[in-house]
Amino acid sequence: MNSDLEEFLSTPLKLLLIIAKYGDNGIAQYDLIYNTRMSSGTVLKHTKLLAEKGLIQIIETKTEVGSKKKIFKITEKGKKVVEELNKLMNEIGVVEVT
């Protein structure tokens, strides 16, 4: 993510943008934690908020060995928010976010 952009965004918006980059396939919880270098607690707190607002979907599955796995996928509402955020960032002269 663009470092100029990071200073403008809250943690939930940063996570939304990262999840949006993975499109309809989504991103696994582990990968999101690894890529952001955020704690699992921080990621879970903010992804829960994003899901409550209808911006992402949290899908729980089981791995081959039976452990739980969470996948985060952007929703249509989330895509619209990212689109609006892109417009705003372009207006203030920050590079497009996705």
Automatic annotation (TrEMBL):
Cross-referenced Pfam families: B-block_TFIIIC (PF04182)
Alphabetically ordered keywords of this record: Plasmid
Residues of the B-block binding subunit of TFIIIC domain: 13-60
Name of the protein: Transcriptional regulator, wHTH
Keyword Nucleus in annotation: no
Domain of life: Archaea
Gene source species: Saccharolobus shibatae (strain ATCC 51178 / DSM 5389 / JCM 8931 / NBRC 15437 / B12)
